[in-house]
Give the backbone structure.
Amino acid sequence: MPPALRERLARTDWGLFVAALGLSLVGALLVWSTTRDSVGAALAVRHLVNAAVGAVLAVALVAVDVRWLRAVAPWVYLAGTAGLVLVLTPLGQTVNGSRSWLFLPGGFSLQPAELAKIGLVVGLAMILAEGRDPLRPPLWREVLTAWTVAAVPVLLILLQPDLGSALVLGVLTVAVVAASGAAARWTWVAVVGTATAVVLAVTLPLLDPYQLDRLLAFRDPDLDPQGIGYQTRQVRLAIGSGGWTGTGLGEGPHTQGGFIPFQHTDFIFSVAGEELGWLGAVGLVLLLGFLVLRAMVVGLRSDEPFGRLVAVGVGAWLGFQTFENVGMNLGLMPVTGLPLPFLSYGGSSMLACWLAIGLVACAQQRWRVSR
């Protein structure tokens, strides 16, 4: 093994990988619990395979020089954007009212919006860090370019429509622009722009009626008592019935009774709340919080703008997605269909989340080795 690679592996914060692996393994158990009666262990095994592939790719990123990552950032961004364009063509497939999937040969499927998050993280970091002194804030031209670059995938995702993923990209962009040192007015412009996009998506309307019902039922569950209103009530009942220690894996009455649709994806947190209890559910949230906090720490300690912005972008992405998913399970946020990182079933989401961990580890190498 080359000495440089050995040094990189020795200096890597493997706690990130251990936490992500632990979440992935618990996710497989939760997926198994909610799908075992219908498909046996098939989805749980697939969940583990997806996690293994993602983990290998994340470890591979540890060996990548952050300068090489910055060099290929435009191509990663373009690849993610191209995938979003493809789903709007006849090649795209509609699932649950959103034309956001590509079905590949061999029975595989891909959701380009998940990989677009990776592309936007590195794309924004490149634009706001390229060729400038770390002590100089970005110029207005650089910030405007960054917002233009972010607007393209956000608009393409809204056309699917997929409000949840568009919100993640918006929050991610706000965080990266703020962390770049840009003037505060640009952060406010970013917040207003994201809020405007959400309002337009709801009022035009760009959203499918099924998705709009989800948002309206958050305000008044009685508007859809047999659909999403019923579903969210069942989710809260499942979480509330778990108590402190839960009913035990595979023993939750709501989970095993099949009262909650999409429980292995959107509402996997309800399985944790019912069968692992309050303590187990809080433990999972703390592990996710550790990943977010560690990404932010890497960003704060980095003296290299590109690595700092990559780490902050990943932290904002995982943090907001966790907040939204847990919030919609608890009835504190509208249902948007966002998966819970590492825990929800879904190959595209799992791959993107593991790649995000690899990006943080790659960004971390620069500041650690240079000390």
